[in-house]
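User: Can you help me understand a structure? I only have the sequence.
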Amino acid sequence: MKRLIVIMGISGAGKTIVGEAISKSLHIPFLDADDFQPKGNIRKISSGISLNDDDHWTWLASIVEHILNAHRSEFILSCSALKQSYRDYLSQRLTIDLVYLKTSEEEALRHLADRKPQTLQQLLVQSQLAILEEPKDAIIVNTENSVDKILEEIEGRLKSR
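Assistant: Let's start by predicting it. Here is the structure, written out as tokens:
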């Protein structure tokens, strides 16, 4: 079965930065779940409309199919994976190691400060926090540390699994 290390959390948690750093350090290919969003989902997000569960299933299915059809056996994936049902879906056909980047609304908005428009970012963070189901089976990392410290903590905890 293919292995997937999922770097999850709300928008602004640092999923891409941390995922790319782990990918480089462990020499495992990196995938950004945003690259798999269907055009309809992108239009909704750009208009400030939150995605619903139906929007997420198509997106998650395209990620799983890409991984299953790839010649590699493991990947790092940055993905919000906010609900347990989304994580369960990913783990039906893939072996998952889950890393949850836990962050506050204030921290997330500070990380998103250079993205436009600010009102849209604030609504996105608030809507994601509202639906977030914190995982119980994840490596939980606080995002207030530097990327180097976060990376060191994740790698150490992955090795001990």
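Now, to help you interpret it: The radius of gyration is 15 Å. The mean pLDDT is 92. Let me know which part you'd like to focus on.
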